[in-house]
Design a protein that fits this description.
Strand order of the largest sheet: 1-2
Structural class: mainly alpha
Number of strands: 2
Distance between the termini: 56 Å
Helix content: 40-55%
Number of helices: 4
Order of helices and strands: EEHHHH
Largest sheet: 2 strands, antiparallel
Shape: elongated
């Protein structure tokens, strides 16, 4: 029996089962299913959710107030200042990685959703599925093409015509669309 699963790198992994013991065969590190791998990703997601809640903000305010109230007790010494500087630096440094991990995951998920919409919508140009991998020149060319389409659509709308339809974005590779 073979089971297909989506992996971290966006590919489908075939996972065969051992017929005798009914245990799944060993997968390499890149084939481990998304939901079953990386404790850090689960931790990052949890921390990002917690840090974004009002309780986290109020906890930070309370910490700052406690630190400020302790100022006179410690005579506003260098050590007193170092405590808040060190604490905020450490929290900021660690949160950068947590937030970046969450942002990367969310961005990739959004890209996959958009790719699926493009793929599934009749009349859409499948060439834009992997648009983020294009060179700057190719992106500029596509942008000029879309700008031209937008101008044409606006002209049609202003004249009372329908602007729906999917004309060719780059009909000729040699021609620069939008010039």
């Amino acid at each position: 029996m073979i089971v297909l699963r989506m992996t971290r790198n966006g590919h489908r992994a075939k996972q065969s089962h051992n017929q005798e013991s009914n245990k799944p065969a060993k997968l390499n590190r890149r084939q481990v299913p998304i939901k079953a791998n990386h404790k850090f990703q689960r931790f990052a997601r949890m921390m990002a959710r917690m840090a974004g809640r009002p309780g986290a903000f109020f906890l930070a305010i309370i910490c700052i107030l406690v630190w400020a109230l302790l100022g006179p007790i410690f005579h506003f010494s260098d050590t007193w200042q170092l405590v808040i500087n060190t604490a905020t630096t450490i929290v900021t440094f660690l949160m950068v990685f947590v937030i970046q991990n969450t942002q990367n995951r969310d961005s990739e998920a959004m890209q996959l959703k958009l790719d699926e919409l493009i793929r599934a919508t009749k009349g859409c140009h499948n060439a834009v599925l992997d648009i983020e991998e294009l060179s700057e020149e190719e992106l500029d060319r596509l942008k000029r093409g879309y700008e031209k389409l937008a101008k044409e659509a606006l002209t049609k709308v202003r004249s009372g015509e329908s602007d729906s339809g999917t004309p060719e974005l780059m009909p000729d590779r040699k021609e620069t669309v939008g010039d």
